[in-house]
Amino acid sequence: MPKGFTTTGGHVRKLPSSRFRFTSWYQIKETDVRGDQLSCPRVREGPVEDDSAPSNRQIFNKNSRKRREDEQTWEDRLQENWENCTELNLSYQDLGDVFQLENFRRILRRLIRVERLQLVDNALCDLSSIRLPRCKSLNLHRNHLKSLAQLPKIPAIEHLCVSENNIRSLAELKLLEHTPLHTLTLRHNPCEFLEDYRSRVFSYLPNLKVLDGIPKLPEDSVPPCFQESSRLCIIL
Q: Minimal CB count within 10 Å: which of 6, 67, 165, 175?
């Protein structure tokens, strides 16, 4: 069918004018041309502008502000949300530079809600300035700690592993006396070779249930001074 024509009841009828072929349906006011007779898409008419409607400048400012907020939100997402972290593994960090170590400590200070923390093989020497108020499980296996006083502040600790460090004394176990600690791993430290090692640990921590993977035994409850005779041997 030639352009500019339409059918009505089987009869070919010419459009009122060829200019209506590309006119939106809502622009047709007082004609007998229907929307399905046009050659352009049907577009919904927008709201009528009035004085109460926001100006273009207001709309632009609003869009600019929203765009800035979206960009800020995206920047926040790119940053690590350490404060809300509850479980974290920061092992094997190879902290060979002073700047790396300082940045690592800065991250640890932000872990105010962490409950499970892995810090294996990080060559850490002193964490006494760090406080982990909600930490229940801390793994410091294979670091450079020389004393239990170099541990972070862990008032809620339940499971603690400091195996393969350089801890020589057990006296600092008193620092953990008022914590809910019931699992402790101290093996492969020099203190493991102290006389009456297990009984000494349980004398400092009477509520401890498991030491070095072994549950508390009846003989572990005997004070160390009563076990001295059992350690004597006779060489013939």
A: 67
Could you tell me the sign of the dihedral formed by the alpha carbons of 174, 176, 182, 185, in that order?
negative
Q: Which of 164, 142, 159, 162 has its CA nearest to residue 151? A: 162
What is the 8-class DSSP label of residue 47?
A: P
pLDDT at 84 over 60: yes
Confirm if 105 and 125 have CB atoms less than 8 A apart. no
Instruction: Confirm if 115 and 100 have CB atoms less than 8 A apart.
Output: no
Q: Would strands 116-118 and 137-139 be described as parallel, antiparallel, or unpaired?
A: parallel
- Pick from 138, 73, 85: which is nearest to 114 by CA? 85
| Superfamily of domain 81-223 in the CATH hierarchy | Ribonuclease Inhibitor (3.80.10.10)
* Domain regions of the chain by residue span: 81-223
* Residue 203 burial (CB count, 10 A): 18
Strand 183-185 with 210-211, pairing: parallel
Are 117 and 141 contacting, i.e. CB atoms less than 8 angstroms apart?
no
| Residues β-bridged to residue 153 | 131
* Single pTM value for the model: 0.64
Rg (CA), the chain: 38
Q: Kindly state the tokens that stand for 40.
A: 């352009």
Rounded to the nearest angstrom, the gap between the alpha carbon of residue 222 and the centroid of all alpha carbons in its chain is 44
